[in-house]
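Schema walk-through. Below, the input block comes first and the output block second. Nothing else is stored per chain. Lengths vary across the set, and this one has 191 residues.
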Amino acid sequence: MQELSELKVLMQRHIFGNDIANSFNPYSRAVFDRLRRCHTIHMGVHQYRCDDKACGHIHLQYHSCGDRHCPHCGGTKRDAWVEDRMSELLPIKYYHVVFTLPSELRSLVMGNRKVMFDLLFESAHYTLLTLGRDPKWLGGQLGIISILHTHGQELSFHPHIHCIVSGGGIDKDGQWQTNKRAGDSFLSHAG
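--- output ---
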């Protein structure tokens, strides 16, 4: 918990208490505002009082922001999500594939977030599923888990989708199929 309070101090010093926050888009400003208010009186509070009249201790529990970007609130949800996905894994090979929105189209996202992100997901899934169904490559239905990231490692706006793709698929007869062309797959290890 100390790490979280240290992070909050750093954010207060370098983001919240700085004019840089004014340059953020409205969505990012709203996220940072929720992070700033997380576990403070601004999010609300529950009061708990000890039932023992002699004690009378009162504990204040400040509400969390629940934002997925929050290192406290989002971390718990993220860890639970990863654990759930890990329990679903089959004993097969998986590949990591990334689809990036071209820089020329990124400005369109600002006024059309849902439409553009939906199109990015649809394009990624269409590409993978079409190649997977092609008998030349696999001839089966791939399994895909995909996650949207809106920013790159340097926190620049860089919408992209990370896909975890099964290293095989189910064919029309319900049989498991792997790559038909050894060493020549649309899914291959990078570097």
